[in-house]
Structures are given as C-alpha cells and as structure tokens.
Design a protein that fits this description.
The complex is a heterodimer of chains A (121) and B (103). Chain A is an all-beta fold and 121 residues long. In chain A, 0% of the residues lie in helices and 50% in strands. In chain A, the strands form two sheets. In chain A, strands 2, 4, 5, 6, 9, 10 and 11 form a seven-stranded mixed sheet that branches. In chain A, strands 1-3-8-7 form a four-stranded antiparallel sheet, with no helix packed on it. Chain A starts with a strand and ends with a strand. With 103 residues, chain B is an all-beta fold. Chain B has strands spanning 4-7, 10-13, 19-29, 34-38, 45-49, 53-54, 62-75, 85-90, 93-94, 98-102. The chains are: A mainly beta (121), B mainly beta (103).
C-alpha cells in the first residue's frame, strides 16, 4: 500500500525556518517525481515545488523561489522541503504528493494527509 | 504559465442531479488534464486523468471529456458522498476549485 506521511509542520515566527519531511512507503521512491502542494486555510491548491526522480531537476512556484529548497533521499525513502524566511502568506497545509509514473502532465496519484505550517508572531 | 479557470466556483445542487463542471485553459493544451475531489480536512483524491480516463476505484458516475482549452467533469447522478470541492489540474497548475453544496 502506498503511503506518504508528512511531518515537521508547526508554529513559526515570521522570518523563521522549517524543514518538512515526507516518509514514503509501499513503492520505489526513486522511480517517481515528487511534489509538495500547499493549501492555505479556506483556499485552493498550489503546487509549491517538484523534484525529479534523481533530484537533478527542481521546480518552484515563484512565491517561494530563493526561500525554499526541495530535496530527497531515495535511500531513506524520504522527501524534504526546507523553508526559510517564512511569511504569514506561507501559512498552509503542506501535502507531499507522488507524480504518476511516466506522467508528462504531472498527475498526482497519491497524497499524504498533510502537515500544517502556521507563520505567526 | 498556463492558467486554469473553473466554472462555476460553487453550485447548490441535490442528490440525483446531473452536474457538469468546466475547466478552461488559458492556452491550448493536449489532453493531459486531471480532476481531483477534496473533502474537508482530507487530501485531494484523483478522479480522472488524461481528461477522460477514470482512476481505478472511482465510481462510473464520474466522467471527463474535452481537449485543447475546454474540459468538463460530469457527475451523472449526484450521491450524498459527492458533495465536495473539485479541482482541475495540469502540469503543476490547479484551477481555483468548484464547491458542490447541498441545496
């Protein structure tokens, strides 16, 4: 059974940092692109970052470029999102999602339950 | 970057109704569009991929169609568990969502 379990969320002050983790199981992580998607309270979905199977390509939404870094450790079956210089507008539930194999459209076929990041003083 | 615009943003509807949600892309694309269902407090669930392919385990009352710039998600006969928010998605861009509410 495919499982994605996020951790690392919490309350952080503006300007602070957090590192989100996603533990993957039930499939071979190294075969899949992976994404982080966020959802601000009461709002829609926004893709934050995506990383290629081997980590050689990374994509970010403009609002987090230069402040966030997506990475992965396939040997540890883990995906990460390092977020720095956090702002109030980064407050959201952050989901880890798997990109379907060979999907040129980036279909997200499995999602974790999400971890809440709250940026507030 | 491509933009996806869904309509309507919300819809009051009843059990048994036929519902159609539209997703319009800002530029012509192939059929690489997906639809997701999200219930409160839960992650999105993939319903349709490649515009019209039903994800495994998804009821047949859900169907998708379209190509180019215009795509639709249809629910043939709305069930109580279908009241949720629906999102279209393509290459990292999501529509703003369509919320189905009970009339």
């Amino acid at each position: 059974e495919v499982q994605l379990v996020e951790s690392g969320g919490g309350l952080v002050q503006p300007g602070g940092s957090l590192r989100l983790s996603c533990a993957a199981s039930g499939f071979t992580l190294s075969n899949h692109w992976m994404s982080w998607v966020r959802q601000a309270p009461g709002k829609g979905l926004e893709r934050v970052a995506t990383i290629k199977e081997d980590g050689s390509e990374k994509y970010y939404v403009d609002s987090v470029k230069g402040r966030s870094t997506i990475s992965r450790d396939n040997a540890k079956n883990s995906l990460y999102l390092q977020m720095d210089s956090l702002r109030a507008e980064d407050t959201a539930v952050y989901y880890c999602a798997r990109v379907r194999l060979r999907s040129v459209a980036g279909i997200l076929d499995y999602w974790g339950q999400g971890t809440l990041v709250t940026v507030s003083s | 970057a491509i933009q996806l615009t869904q309509s309507p943003s919300s819809l009051s509807t009843s059990v048994g109704d036929r519902v159609t949600i539209t997703c319009r892309a800002s530029q012509g694309t192939d059929s690489a569009l997906a639809w997701y269902q999200q219930k409160p407090g839960k992650p999105p669930k993939l319903l349709i991929f490649d515009a019209s392919s039903l994800e495994g385990g998804v009821p047949y009352r859900f169907s998708g169609s379209g190509s180019g710039t215009d795509f639709t998600l249809t629910i043939s006969s709305l069930q109580p568990e279908d009241f949720a928010t629906y999102y279209c998605h393509q290459r990292g861009t999501f529509g703003q969502g369509t919320r189905l509410e009970i009339k």
